[in-house]
Fold:
Amino acid sequence: MKIFMIVDDSPVIRKVARRIIEDLGFVVVEAEDGEQAIAKARENMPDGLMVDWQMPGVTGIDALQEIMTMPGARNVKALYCTSALLVPEMTRAKRAGATGFIMKPFNRRVIREKLAELGLLEATGQAA
Structure:
């Protein structure tokens, strides 16, 4: 089973995303900030992750950059999650290792489509 990490300081966002992503067949790990995400990735590298950009302490971009330099991160697919996509922010996220972007608010269809685009879902929509 594939592992997917949700990194967001909002418990509501984590809860909604978790329900959707678990329904797609993933084991979900949550982190409430960038520092926690880095520590959890060191313990068990996820196959995919969704990272919020604006969090207290270690930002989403900084956490993503750190995670993507770790052993085992080569094939990790990362969704950068934000409520306002700005070109400089998108460029920094891409340089840090983001392979896709997702806007808040999101829903089941949007997450399914994004995970499929990243190659994390089979054609049937179930986790590979």
About this structure: The chain has one domain: 3-117. The helical segments are 11-23, 34-43, 60-68, 87-96, 108-117.
